[in-house]
């Protein structure tokens, strides 16, 4: 679980506009009982959920057909999509279909999963009726069992970092990165996969593309503030903003919403 | 292992022929591999199977069928009618391309193999040979019409509903017109136009489907560059995960007897249609001196090929008419050509993987529409009419039944009809003879 943050895209944007900032998750939320994959029954439903869990935690292997980089769903949705303030699936499930500003229409949960494949996983969107989408939907629904639907649950999406009064500064972010992040994520944000637990790449060819939610400073800084460094999240608000500014400045694949020609020329 | 296969093949070839022209077999191997590559992926899609399985089904069973079969120039592997029947059999039981579906397909394929082996052991080859032509013509015409109908929504970019009767797709397409994806329609049209244009170019003749798929992939990539992949929003084949030795185990659970019963029924139909097609093709490409008058040997080869398919992650197949024809035209002389084509295909797929991943579903639908149109055009309606109005009517009835009631039902009724006709002929012959001897 030493994976770092990546995308959860635009619906959070909408949410962030409407909800006030969340500073720290309440203790009750962290200790609330989350379903355990071992408790699943050995039937067809259980099989589909287990397949969803495998795809979720090891996307490049189990959804190889559509995955375009080395990231997994659980790279951003930490703790296999269960951790609050890291876009947990149990909080997202009941909020779809939802209007998303990015596509200017109402998107279903399945379509939202397709967007993750296209942007954060920089791959091919799986067909709506594909096995991968069905398994991921089943897994999310299973995580959300017993939770109210259509209700904004505490811990949904990523928190918003409060205004600090000073602009995000990528150069300060660069030195924070070298101090706090480079040990695991590498000097050049390349991540780590050979030795020790795998760490996600933060930029470059194997990371999310410019259309992903984490290419937005507001979303990425919220995630960093709430979750990084993994296990002992203690960045200040300003550090999180500076880091996000630095990371989003790095090279990565262009935004698939634009033509590749335009995307390569533009920032 | 490869060397051994080649060895067996070439010794067999030498035994068969006075002179072995290796270069012409080599050339035919290449031509067939290029014809087979798009069919492997497209027919896997038609069968509702992952694309990898189509590749495996075009390699291992093809080698086995070529080495054992009686007809040295017959090419087996995935077949349109058989693939459509696999889908018709399994879509009511599982979601296409899921793990469950693949497991059921393996079991079904093994059953088809066993049925064909039993038929070979019981020396039923002659029975297949005596079956009236209208069964196979009706089924192929019906499959052609069915493909045209079911691929129309895919071309429009509308999600199809699996397991519906074929004519419902036409309605889905009409109902989906307001939300069609213009990029999808453009890609499919360009694929079809490119394939038809390739028909006129001598160098590209016979590579109809390759041209369609390449044109579709290139068009999609161009659209991506111009408008962005998210705007264009086309489903694609995706990255393949191929393995050199894809061992699999066909398993059936006796607890689920209702599933088994259904599979067995489908396996009978598939074994019947597969064997029927193979024997007709073998007859049509036979040369003077070939031992094609051995339908039982052909049945044995098909049965073993299907069994091998079920142990190498493939799915049921049979002799393929268009591939065999291309194979023969390219100068294939011995089974070595078929073995070579399978091995070359395997190598090609590994090389073409990155391009294959970008092939859009719309281009696959375009390729299938070309295949379907080919089946419809290949139906010798005029010849059937000459054979009598009854023969033509039976063909059309079977075809319409495929479209209206589904492939499975149509095939089973056609089988029953064919056997009834055989018995009737036999009985009236006997009557006739009695009459003759009495007078």
Would you mind describing this structure in some detail?
The complex is a heterodimer of chains A (267) and B (439). With 267 residues, chain A is mostly helical. Chain A has twelve helices and two strands, in the order H-H-H-H-H-H-E-E-H-H-H-H-H-H. In chain A, a hairpin with a 4-residue loop joins strand 1 and strand 2. Chain B has helices at 2-16, 22-46, 51-57, 60-68, 80-90, 99-121, 125-130, 133-156, 166-176, 182-200, 208-227, 229-232, 257-284, 295-311, 321-329, 335-357, 361-378, 381-386, 389-405, 407-438. Helices cover 74% and strands 0% of the residues of chain B. The chains are: A mainly alpha (267), B mainly alpha (439). The A-B interface holds A 44, 47, 51, 64-67, 115, 118-119, 124-131, 134, 211, 255-261, 263 and B 50, 95, 97-100, 159, 162, 224-231, 233, 235-241, 357, 361.
Reconstruct the topology from this structure.
The complex is a heterodimer of chains A (267) and B (439).
Chain A: H1 11-18, H2 27-31, H3 44-57, H4 59-62, H5 78-81, H6 89-92, E1 98-100, E2 105-107, H7 109-118, H8 131-143, H9 170-185, H10 217-227, H11 237-248, H12 260-265
Antiparallel strand pairs in A: 1-2
Chain B: H1 2-16, H2 22-46, H3 51-57, H4 60-68, H5 80-90, H6 99-121, H7 125-130, H8 133-156, H9 166-176, H10 182-200, H11 208-227, H12 229-232, H13 257-284, H14 295-311, H15 321-329, H16 335-357, H17 361-378, H18 381-386, H19 389-405, H20 407-438
Helix pairs in contact in B: 1-16, 2-3, 2-11, 2-15, 2-16, 2-17, 4-14, 4-16, 5-13, 6-13, 6-14, 8-9, 8-17, 8-19, 8-20, 10-11, 10-17, 11-17, 13-14, 13-20, 19-20
């Amino acid at each position: 679980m030493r994976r770092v943050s990546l995308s959860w895209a635009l619906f959070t944007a909408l949410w962030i506009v409407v909800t006030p900032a969340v500073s720290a998750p309440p203790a009750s939320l962290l200790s609330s009982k989350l379903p355990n994959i071992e408790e699943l029954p050995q039937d067809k439903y259980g099989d589909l959920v287990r397949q969803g869990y495998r795809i979720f935690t090891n996307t490049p292997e189990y959804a190889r057909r559509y995955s375009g980089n080395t990231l997994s769903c659980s790279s951003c949705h930490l703790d296999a999509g269960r951790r609050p303030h890291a876009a947990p699936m149990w909080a997202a499930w009941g909020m779809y279909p939802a209007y998303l500003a990015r596509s200017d229409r109402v998107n279903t949960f399945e379509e939202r999963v397709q967007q993750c494949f296209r942007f954060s996983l920089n791959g091919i969107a799986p067909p709506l009726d594909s096995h991968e989408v069905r398994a991921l939907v089943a897994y999310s629904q299973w995580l959300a069992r017993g939770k109210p639907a259509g209700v904004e649950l505490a811990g949904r999406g990523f928190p918003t970092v409060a205004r600090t009064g000073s602009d995000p500064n990528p150069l300060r972010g660069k030195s924070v990165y070298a101090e706090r992040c480079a040990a695991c994520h590498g000097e050049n944000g390349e991540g780590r996969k050979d030795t020790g637990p795998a760490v996600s790449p933060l930029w470059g060819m194997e990371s999310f593309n410019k259309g992903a939610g984490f290419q937005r400073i507001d979303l990425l800084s919220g995630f960093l503030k709430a979750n990084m460094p993994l296990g002992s999240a203690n960045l200040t608000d300003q550090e999180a903003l500076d880091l996000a500014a630095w990371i989003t400045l790095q090279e990565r694949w262009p935004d698939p919403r634009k033509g590749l020609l335009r995307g390569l020329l533009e920032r | 292992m490869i060397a051994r296969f080649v060895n067996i093949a070439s010794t067999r070839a030498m035994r068969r022929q006075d002179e072995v022209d290796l270069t012409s077999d080599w050339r035919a191997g290449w031509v067939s591999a290029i014809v087979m590559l798009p069919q492997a992926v497209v027919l896997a899609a038609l069968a509702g199977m992952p694309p990898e399985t189509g590749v495996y089904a075009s390699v291992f069973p093809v080698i086995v069928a070529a080495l054992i079969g009686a007809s040295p120039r017959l090419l087996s592997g995935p077949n349109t009618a058989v693939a459509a029947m696999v889908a018709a059999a399994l879509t009511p039981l599982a979601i296409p391309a899921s793990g469950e579906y693949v497991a059921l397909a393996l079991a079904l394929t093994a059953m088809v193999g066993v049925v064909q082996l039993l038929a070979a052991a019981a020396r039923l080859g002659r029975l297949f040979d005596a079956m009236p032509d209208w069964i196979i013509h009706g089924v192929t015409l019906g499959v052609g019409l069915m493909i045209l109908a079911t691929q129309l929504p895919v071309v429009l970019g509308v999600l199809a509903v699996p397991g519906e009767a074929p004519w419902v797709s036409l309605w889905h397409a009409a109902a989906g017109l307001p939300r069609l994806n213009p990029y999808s329609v453009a890609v499919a049209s360009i694929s079809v136009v490119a394939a038809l244009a390739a028909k006129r170019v001598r160098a590209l003749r016979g590579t109809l489907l390759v041209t369609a798929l390449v044109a579709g992939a290139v068009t999609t990539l161009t659209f991506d560059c111009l408008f962005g992949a998210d705007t264009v929003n086309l489903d694609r084949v995706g990255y393949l995960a191929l393995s050199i030795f894809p061992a699999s185990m066909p398993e059936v659970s006796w607890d689920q007897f209702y599933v088994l019963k259904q599979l067995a029924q489908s396996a009978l139909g598939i074994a019947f249609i597969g064997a029927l097609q193979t024997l007709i093709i073998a007859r049509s490409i036979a040369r003077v001196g070939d031992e094609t008058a051995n339908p039982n040997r052909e049945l044995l080869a098909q049965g073993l090929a299907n069994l091998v398919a079920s142990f190498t992650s493939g799915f049921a197949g049979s002799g393929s008419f268009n591939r065999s024809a291309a194979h023969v035209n390219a100068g294939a002389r011995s089974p070595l050509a078929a073995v070579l084509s399978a091995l070359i295909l395997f190598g090609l797929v590994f090389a073409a993987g990155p391009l294959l991943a970008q092939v859009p579903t719309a281009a696959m639908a375009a390729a299938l529409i070309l295949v379907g149109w080919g089946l419809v055009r290949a139906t010798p309606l005029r010849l059937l009419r000459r054979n009598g109005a009854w023969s033509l009517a039976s063909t059309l009835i079977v075809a319409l039944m495929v479209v209206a009631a589904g492939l499975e039902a149509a095939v089973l009724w056609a089988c029953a009809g064919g056997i009834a006709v055989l018995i009737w002929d036999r009985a009236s012959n006997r009557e006739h003879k009695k009459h003759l001897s009495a007078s």
